[in-house]
Design a protein that fits this description.
This protein is α+β, with helices and mostly antiparallel strands. It is built from 15 helices and 8 strands. The protein has 3 domains: 66 residues, no CATH class; 163 residues, 2-Layer Sandwich (Alpha-Beta Plaits), CATH 3.30.70; 96 residues, no CATH class. It has a 5-stranded antiparallel β-sheet with strand order 6-3-5-4-7, sandwiched between helices. A 3-stranded antiparallel β-sheet has the order 2-1-8. The radius of gyration is 25 Å and the shape is globular.
């Protein structure tokens, strides 16, 4: 058995799920499989909080990915997956989706800049509640942006607040990453201004942005879940969850009025004008021996590999056998990388449009099936 599968099995055997949380279903476990232990640990830490708002975040995270619908636009032969997400910042699945969504917006914004520069503003670690530190950091950065020197030299920008933990002192270390456009800013002047505003913090970093894509990834990588959160104690996780609740961790600024960053991942375009069918219904129809459902599940698994994990778990008979060519490629992959591939090497990905063109009429057939027509099957 592959190591990942063994780790997940051990996790299930040790899992203790309190009754105050919604029970997890197979779809959730399959979709969250790459980070299942990490996610469970965050949920269990937050539910133990004495703060009701933090407990609510745990309950929301426990409902993440508990259902999925396929929205179909027959006119365009489009299929959109709509996965119910909790949208909590500590949820590994939602954090990744949020960072990708925000990263696309930030990259477009930075590419439009003439001379982008990266500025890091730090503050001294202090024994002050994290909520207060975050408020102070936002206030201090606003004061910097209102300085005449800043307004004369900076036209626009975007900033994000990142929270880390100082391992030696055990104190919070929130800081600002900012990419701005404008004239050259002398490092010493920025350092002096920041020192005066923060009453003593003077560690800043300023550099030109040469790799826009790399800088965007770095800027947005931990916009949802902090980079070292897995090393935090349960109490630190609860403190962080409470401190960031309702707080914008990324924002645009400048006299050129750049477009605001959209934080939450939006509903796919066209969903409102489409009809939908749930994955659970397609599986149920397959159990009822509907041929269209079998073929639909195979196509859904090809279109959405993360759903394929659940589909093949529920219906292992649908899982494709490894061909001789695929087995050869898998062996070559082991030799070259030193890592074992998945149990079945994935076949070459077909174009999304080709899969959708085949899937849409099948889903339409299933959508039109009435329950009363199935009672005698």
């Amino acid at each position: 058995m592959p190591r990942v599968a063994t780790d997940i099995l051990k996790h299930f055997e040790a899992r203790i799920w309190p009754q105050t949380l919604p029970e997890q279903n197979g779809l959730q476990d399959a979709i969250h499989a790459p980070h299942l232990a990490e996610r469970d640990r965050y949920i269990l830490a937050l539910i133990d909080s004495s703060d009701r708002t933090v407990q609510d975040q745990a309950r929301r995270m426990a409902t993440c990915a508990d259902s999925v619908h396929l929205y179909v636009d027959p006119d365009l032969s489009d299929v959109h997956e709509y996965l119910h997400r909790c949208k909590c910042r500590l949820c590994p699945l939602c954090a990744r989706a949020r960072s990708i969504h925000i990263g696309q917006q930030v990259e477009a914004l930075v590419k439009a800049m003439k001379k982008p520069r990266h500025l890091v503003l730090t503050v001294k670690s202090v024994d002050v509640p994290l909520e207060e530190q975050l408020r102070n950091l936002s206030t201090w950065f606003a004061k910097l942006r209102h300085k005449a020197f800043w307004q004369h030299n900076v036209t626009s920008g975007v900033y994000t607040i990142e929270c880390t933990m100082n391992e030696r002192s055990g104190k919070w270390h929130p800081h600002i990453h900012c990419v701005f456009d404008g004239h050259y800013l002398p490092y010493k002047i920025i350092q002096r201004l920041w020192h005066g505003i923060t009453n003593g913090s003077e560690i800043v970093w300023l550099e030109p942005v040469d790799d826009v894509h790399g800088m965007t990834n770095e800027l947005c990588k931990y916009i949802g879940k902090p980079q070292d959160a897995e090393h935090w104690t349960d109490e630190q996780l609860r403190t962080y969850a409470k401190a960031i609740r309702g707080r914008r961790m990324m924002q645009t600024f400048g006299r050129s009025k750049p477009k605001p960053i959209e934080d939450l991942v939006p509903t796919p375009a066209g969903v409102e004008a489409s009809w939908s069918i749930s994955l659970s219904r397609v599986l149920w129809l397959a159990d009822m021996r509907q041929e269209s459902a079998y073929r639909s599940l195979i196509l859904i698994a090809e279109l959405y590999p993360h759903l394929g994990r659940y589909i093949y778990q529920r219906m292992p008979q649908l899982e494709p056998e490894m061909t001789k060519a695929e087995r050869t490629l898998a062996i070559m992959s082991i030799i070259e990388s030193g890592r074992a591939p998945p149990r079945h090497a994935s076949p070459p990905q077909r174009a999304k449009k080709l899969i959708e063109a085949e899937l849409v009429p099948l889903l339409k057939n299933l959508h039109d099936v009435k329950d009363e027509d199935l009672q005698w099957l």
